[in-house]
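pinging the channel bc i need a second pair of eyes. not urgent but kinda urgent?? the chain im working w is below, pasted from the shared doc
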Amino acid sequence: RFANYCMGDIEETIKRIQAHKSVLGIIILNNEGLPIRSTFEQDQTIQYAALIHRLAQEARSIVTEFDHSDDLVFVRMRSRKHEFMVATDREYIMVTVRDIE
């Protein structure tokens, strides 16, 4: 999971994901929802970070309510224009935003 990776591995992963032509950007948040790395502009990063952190918290709560020994690992959400892929860890949240048009 994320906590076991060094920054070089994380940067390499971001470059690999960002190379896909449909990927609009990537954000990595700490467990408090603060962006620690982003390929988006600052305003967009702040907006996505706040909303996705809230979504991840709620989704994690739902998963653990069903089974207290379980935890949220991944959420995929799609709108008419974008797809949001959210990978969670105890320390970090990684968000990938894709254009699906």
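so The two ends are 31 Å apart (CA to CA). and Helices lie at 7-18, 42-66. — does that match what u expected or am i reading it wrong
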